[in-house]
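B., you asked whether I could sanity-check this one before it goes into the benchmark set. Here's the sequence:
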Amino acid sequence: MASFGTPLDLYSTYRNIKVCLLGRQFVLAIDVHEYRNNELAGSYSTAAGVEEFFKLKEKIKVYGNSLGHNLYEIYYPLLKSSDRKKNPQTAIDDFMLIDVGLPLYNPFVGKGSPKEIADVLKLAVAFGFVEPVIHAMQKYCDKNIGIDCSGFAANYFGLTPKEICNTGAGVMAPESKRIGRLEEVRVGTAIVFKSGKHVALVDRITNIDKTNGIAYSLNCKVAESTADQMVEGGPSDGLNYTDYTLLVENKKDAKIFKILRPLSTSKHGFYETAVYLANWPQ
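And here's what the prediction gave me:
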């Protein structure tokens, strides 16, 4: 079942994250929009984020109370766990529970949920890695945190990244979830490149063309995170909300479709590629 009402709801949540800091101060409107992918280098690299992950993890081990199985309690005001044990009566104004496994790691490698990202920012402020003001937190986020295509899709469906993107299209669009007719497209339908290299989500159907009652073309709004600059004047990469056209493509395999996808670097403003369409449980 989808964790968010529509892909646009999730898109909007990433672009307006609210962080409740330890001490119950709020910082609003952190915009998580950068494309980060653990398999890529350059501007999409997660190297800076992974380094930050290990720094946070070490601080948690020093200041946190271990509950086993990667779980720690962090108390505020901060006091080293060894010192807190010596002074068990020290007042506690606030606390948080944190898993130093995937929930802490995911935001730094393009897979984090909005909540996981908010928790990471909360900890980064608590340990003094960033000032508790929006411009500093936004800069920290832009440098270290982002979302990739499968991370966006996985969080929409409430799946772990491994459940949706282990090995390309076979996992992102398993045979049991592929659809064979454009009439089956709905809010949340996954558009999975046949190459297995990208996944996007249908947010809203805007038009459908039929011949003899059978759909052959469908226009829709799509939410995704991508390494491409999709439209002129738009973001160079990251979260996008654009128009797609889906077309019936392969008569030998009714479950292969074609898309016309925006691409600013193309002389036509779009490109074509073969895709599967998959309906995950919602």
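One thing to flag: The chain is about 25% helix and 30% strand. Otherwise nothing jumped out at me.
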